Structure formats: C-alpha cells, structure tokens
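Narrative progress, year one. The postdoctoral researcher (J.K.) led the effort to move from monomer predictions toward full complexes, under supervision of the PI. The following entry was the first complex the group processed end to end, covering 891 residues in total.
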Amino acid sequence: VTRAGWALLVVLASCGSHRAPRPAGSDAPLMISVEQQSAWVRNFNPLLPPGRARWPSRDGVYEPLLIYNPMAAGGGAWTPWLATGYDWSSDLRTLRFHLRSGVKWSDGQPFTSDDVVTTFEILHRYPALDIAHVWGFIASVTAPDPLTVELAFSRVYVPGLDDVAHQPIVPRHIWAHVPDPMTFANPDPVGTGPFTEVRVFRAQVFELGRNPYYWQPGRPKVAALRMSAYPSNDQANLALVIGDVDWAGNFVPAVDRTFVDRDRAHHVSWSPLVGNMVFLYANTARPPFDDVRVRKALSMAIDRSRIVEVAMYGMTRPADATGLTDAYAGWRDAAAGRADWMMHDPAAAGRLLAAAGFPRGDDGVRRDAAGNALDYDIEVVSGWSDWVRAAQLIARDLSAIGVRAHLRVYEFSAWMSRLQEGTFALSVGYSLDGPTPYRFYRWTMSSQTVRPLGQTSAGNWHRFADPEADRLLAAFERSAAPADQHAIAIDLERRFAAVAPAIPLFANPLWGEFSSEHFTGFPDAAHPFARLSPHIEPDALLVLTAVEPVVPGAGAPATAAVMR
Amino acid sequence: MTRTLVSRLGFYALAAWVSITLNFIVPRLMPGDPATIMAGRLSGQASPEAIAALRAQFGATDRSLVGQYVDYLGDLAHGDLGLSISEYPARVSDVIAGGLTWTLALGGVAVITSFVLGTALGALAAWRRAGWLDAVLPPVLALSGAFPYFWLAMLALYIFGFTLGWAPLRHAYCDHLAPSWSFGFILDAIEHAVLPVVTIVAATLGGWLLGMRNTMIGVLGTEQIKLARAKGLPAGRVLWAYAARNAILPNLAGFGMALGFVLGGSLLTEIVFSYPGTGYLLIQAVRNQDYPLMQGLFLTLTLAVLAANFAVDLLTLWLDPRTRRHG
C-alpha cells in the first residue's frame, strides 16, 4: 500500500522533467565536483590553509608564480606562470623571480612585484597563514623593479623554491587595506586567475565567470565554472554518471562499468599512479620495529599483488623499494627499486625473524627474549574500504609468519592523532609528498622530523632517523643543478631501500573523470599534459586554461594538449 | 495554574543551564584538536610552526577550563557563537542560519505530516478494531519503519529519481532558480521536498500509528466512553472529543521531542538527497573537531527541544484538566 501511495504522490507532484536542461552554447558553465559540502559558505581567501576557501580560490581565482608539473615531458618540470622564470645567485642565498609583463588583476590594475612582496609580508605578519613556514628560511623579500622579486634566504635551502613558487599571490591595492587577512572571507575576489567573477553564489550552487583581463590571450575558453554542493561521494558520482558533472576527481566504484560504459564516446576515467604512496607504518620508536630485520621480514610476508588485486581492484601495482610513486617517474632509479625485502617470501621472512631473535613458540606465535608474543593491531581509518581490505590481507599474511595481527578501525581524527602522537604499533598510512623526492624522504628518514613519542608530529609518524639520510638531504638542500639533485635523489632511494624505514604497499591512483560531451581538452592517457584530478593544486590551473567548450555542429575537435 | 507555569519555567531554566554546560564540556572530552586534524588533512604541506599558529588562532588557550567556561557563558549571553573552524572564518551563526530554513521546512513538514496522519490513522484503526485499516496498516508500517532509513531513502532516490526520473535527484530547488516567493519557485521547492518528506513519513508513520492505536484501545474500554455512547452522542464526537483527546497525550509528548529534534536536521535525509540543511553540518563539525560549530548546533538543538516541550506542556495543560493544579 505504501509503495503505491508514494508512487502516486510522486506522479502527482512531478509534472515536468527533472533532468533540468543544461545551459547550452558558448556561455555554458563547466560543471565541476571537487569539494564535498551540503551548503557553500562564501569564502575566496586564498591565503587560508587549503580547504577553507572555495575551490579553486588558490589555483583558479588566484595564481602562483610557477607551477611544478610532474607530468611534463622528461619527468617533471616547472611551468612558468605569473613568473616567466627564476634564477639563484651563485651562493644560493638569493632567489630572483622574473615576473610576466602585461598581467592584470581582474579589476584592470597591473600586476607588479609589489603584489608579490605584499603577499609574503602578510605571511610574515600572520604565521598561521604561512602554511609552509617560508619565513623559516627567507630573510627578506624586495622588489628591485616592477617585474623582479628578490628573496634573500637566511640559509641555503634550495627546496624552499617549491613553497615560494606555489604561493598564491594577492593584489597589494586590496590586501594592504584588509584589517585582518586571517578572518577576511574575501567575498568578491580580485585575482589574476582565469575565473574571478562570482556570477552566482547560493547555498547549493555557485558560479565563477571568466576574468575579463586574463593574461593568456583567448583563454580561458570556458565561460564559467559551476560548482554544485554534493555532501558525499555517492551524490557526486550519481551526478557524474548522469552527466550533471563534467569534471571530477572522485573514487567511483567499478568506474568502467558504472561510468565509462554508460557513454563510451564521451566518458573518460584516467587515474595514473601519481597519488601518494600507501605504507604500512611500523613504529620504529618501539621494539621490535627498531630492528630493520623485523621491518624487512614484515614486508616480505606481505603478498602485495594480492592486495592490489583484492583491495584495489587491480587499479594500481605493487610498490618498489624506493617507495616513490609515478609522480617521481623522472627521479626513480629502477635498480634502486629492486630489493629482496619487497618480494613476497614468507619462508625468508620467517628465517629473518628467527635470526633477529624471535623464534616461534609452541602455538606458532613468535616471541621475543622476554617471552612476549608478537601481537599487534593494524590501525586504519574506518570507512576507507580499500585500506580496510588491505589491512585484513596484511593481518592474514603476518599471522602466517607467526606475527599475530588484528585489524583495528578508527575514525579519521582518532587515527590521525594516534599516528601523530606515535601511540600506534602498526598503521596503514599515506606518504607526504612534494614536487621533488626531497620532501618524501625528509618525512620518512630525517632526524629533523622525528618527535618523541607522545608529542604531536606533522610527519615521520613512524619516527625514523638515519644519519646517512640526513647527510644526503642536507646535500640536496644545497644543490640547485638538476643533475646534482638527481644524483642525490638516487642515493636517497638506495638508502631507503637499505634501511626500510617504512613498508611501501602500493601507489594510490589519483582518481580523475571527465565527460567530453560538452567540453574537451582535458588531460588523459593519450594527452598526459597535466594531472587530471581537480583536487591537486596547483595543476588545476593547467587544466582550467586548456579546456574548451564543444562547438555544436563543428564535429568533435581533437583534444588539444597545450603546453606553455 | 500560574504556580504550575512558574515551576515548569524554573525546570526549563535548569534544563537549559545543564545542556549549555554539557555543551561546553562534551566537545572538550574528544581526543585531538582542530589544528592537528587540519594539518593531517593537508598531507604534510603544513609546517609545525604554522600548525602551532593555527592552534592559537582557533582558540586553543592555556586558560583554565573554568576561565574558558566563563568566557563561553559571556559570549553566549551576547549571542556570540564564535567563528566556525571548518568554515573558517565564517561566523557559526551564519553557517547555521544558511541551512536552518530548509531544515525547518523539510523536517517540520515531515514531522507534522507524520504525526497528524499517524495519530489520525491510529485512532481510526482502534475505533474499527480488526477492520481492514487495522489489519493492513500496522504490520505494513512497522515493516517500512524497520527498514534502515538510509537504505529506504537510497532506494526511493534510485527508483523515483534515477531510474524513472519522476523526482529531482538533489537539492532543495533547481540550481538555475534564485530563491524567491514566486509561485514557480515555491512549486519547484515543493517538488524537491516530496521525496525526502515521503521517505521520512514512511519511516516514522508506524510509530505514531501504533502508539495512538494502542492507547486508544485502552481508552475505548473505559467507563466514560461507555457513558458517552450511552448518552447517544454521535460516533464522530465520541471518537475525536472523548477517546482521541485522552489517548493523544503520550503521542503529544513524543511529538514535542520530535519537533525539537527537527532543528538538528534530518541527517540521513539531507545526505541522501543533498538537501542543504543543518544535519550534514553536524557531521562536518565532528569530523573537523569544529567545537564552535558543534556547540552552536547542539545549543540550537537543545533550546529547540526545550521550547517544543514547553509548548507541548502548555498544550497538555489545556487538553488534560488533571494537570491543572489549582491553589
């Protein structure tokens, strides 16, 4: 009775079609799903920590000086953006940016070096906005002329370029008069980016129109971006599947069947292995994980190909011994990646544990000299189903070599605080990355990133320090020549493979989907000019300026892979 | 009568103070802090120095709990709920206000519909015991109420929204319309509310119906109903003015609670139908340890529950003469 009743009610209520017609023509907005919210709050302040201001404030409304693109030919390169280039002084104490001429803010005012100086001065005054803590290594920022910015470094620190170059730049003529940039919601942004005009802003939808003064001639080709509020993945995926979203970076379950097969001519899913690395972190501040043999034995017990197949539906592949994902393809040394401890070999793992002083007891469980059984929880985030499945398989693999392991799920914030405070024994976790492998290895092996147990640590949750890695990282900080950087990176990779600070499992695919029915020019496997996921900053700018509307009747234009 | 009212008011003032205090204590018992969680979500981009500065900015102080409590009460007295952390730097009152209208409209309509319909059907079912209404409705509604709501709503969305295309898939109104009091917009908003309201009613109707039916059966067996019938009063008058008026009291108390909880948002409904209400805000607040937002939401919720209960108290005083103490 009730079912029929509803059906009747629904029929009565729905007089028209509910697939609201898409606005057509050259003025049509590109529909994007990035942030998941039930209602939008108007905030376009690009200086706040990522996630506070609406996407794409940091990389669409505002822009950085340079963009590091790991997909660039040759395995990653800096793309000139608001700056046309940079150079280091010979003593590496001064970094000079050469700004692009003719760039205008969206209110028509010229963009100059004063804007860059003001931006960094704001960061200096408000340490909570200086997310990367650039004032930890720069001493002053000056503008010798309107198109040159000079940063004096307080110490030699070449990787500081990454933080400085990616900082969104705000206009001096507005931000110099903002009383408190920390609590400024910037409702009507003035930026240099391709999309700056807020055409619509409502709780469930907002639209950004193009910047009338954008510096790239003829771009952006898309008239506007429209962001609809979807509270969760399910709602966003539904909209993607039926064509209400053109571009997304969501995990879509069984993406080929649910999304691609629905419209093979237009629907594309491209998820290269350039997300972060997924690790089994063993807390090296606690025995027995301070023993490299134990960490290697755990690694050898794990059947990664099975995890990839079962937990990740074959969407990725087992990691190698460098721990690096394909985002560092240009840096990775194949020889360094081959190591015994990354091979699935339970027998060898057992021998290694026995040699380390952990013989099997009568019940098959290994014990230390004091007779304590090796018995641990593997901690994962509840609801992260791929990790939960992976942890289940790992628990079984470890039990097979006599290490008792149990899956234990935590809510994200609890899982994160346990990692940060080092209260875990074994935990599945992700890597912390940057443009070059420097940051990755700093967060996995540097003594500078180790905090005592119980103290909150932003990274190096497994609390591993290695003097040789410290030396290599220090050398990297003092090398500006790409050839030197590559040579040191390979040494770091070898060191990682030798000391096994953490146990790499697999690289996370960076999920990306688009539909070419209304817009083309997205990166894909055939045109990998940038990462597809809109979640990745600042790469989104590369895509936003490349995408163009499909002109009705003009036939399908070829996907344009534009590199500047 | 006045004394009854004054003592009730005193009780509500005490309850309000207790809930305001709990509201202060409970979020502070959670492990972790908002700045660390934000840093965790930023995947290593945030430096320890920035996290420390953020923590200070988000109001982590070394001030004693008592001091913080005094500040909290002071701000509250000025109606200042502070700045949200997950939507920093938006004011908590603005963040909540954005969704409140939709939550009130959707939840209010759904709860009132369900209560009125369920109570009336329950009264009728008891009146004609073992009639077709009594035979069919209780088991069917008990069944639909026993389905997990999330699953029921997803199924409805899949069938009527996705497969048949009869109902909108999301939101409170079409994206291309601007909210206004025009006929077209109101019609559009109603269309968007139908499926969410129907699913809530389907899930909750059984409770009201069974409660009313069971109390009615008890009331119908009392002497005063026999007397009313013996006096030859019309059946309708006996049913509604004599039996239902007495039997509705327990349901009414439940209605007060349900009405108060409307403000908390129909969490699952809002998630399934992407409805821009306050329900999802609570999850967001908890996930990000957004204390100010959590406190603001709990405060609105508790005050609404208290206000609704007070209203129901007044209604009960009017409906049930026994509750009016004279003196």
